[in-house]
Specification:
mainly alpha; Arc Repressor Mutant, subunit A; three-stranded antiparallel beta sheet
Length: 148
């Protein structure tokens, strides 16, 4: 393989890795009729049920315009339900249905089996995750400084 400008870019490798993760998750989540972004919402609510859409946006790093169609599909598929916030009538609270609560362990098991079927992630994963967290923190700081 020849060295090209594209292949020397760290951002390109991160982009390709993100695409590969998305494909792997898509296959694993297919039996549940879930997409990877929908799974991220469920993960967020499995950690803490009963969040506003703004809180979910903040945790998964997407805009409200991106999140709203994801939430609507999850509601339509009976994974979530929405109620008005008692604290702020302009906000809605998103909560897990029994279907979502009951499927958590099975889905998590399927994901773990897929991710751990090779020794790469259990061995390399923690260090790689730490480095990506550091990279994301740095890029976030750079983006905040650029907006000042």
């Amino acid at each position: 393989m020849t060295t090209s400008k594209l292949n020397t870019q760290l951002c390109f490798e991160v982009y390709k890795a993100a695409n590969q993760f998305s494909k792997l998750y898509a296959k694993t989540l297919l039996p549940y009729e879930l997409t990877y972004p929908q799974y991220l919402v469920l993960l967020t609510l499995w950690d803490e049920d009963g969040l506003t859409s703004t809180e979910i946006c903040d945790r998964i790093g997407v805009s409200i315009g991106t999140l709203n169609p994801i939430l609507q599909k999850l509601i339509d598929k009976k994974w979530l339900y929405k109620t008005l916030s008692q604290k702020d009538r302009r906000a809605s609270i998103l909560s897990l249905t029994d279907k979502a609560k009951n499927a958590e362990e099975e889905i998590q098991t399927q994901i773990m089996e897929k991710m751990c079927c090779f020794d790469f992630l259990p061995e390399q994963g923690p260090e790689l995750k730490q480095k990506l967290q550091e990279l994301n923190a740095f890029l976030s700081m750079m983006n905040r400084e650029e907006s000042l």
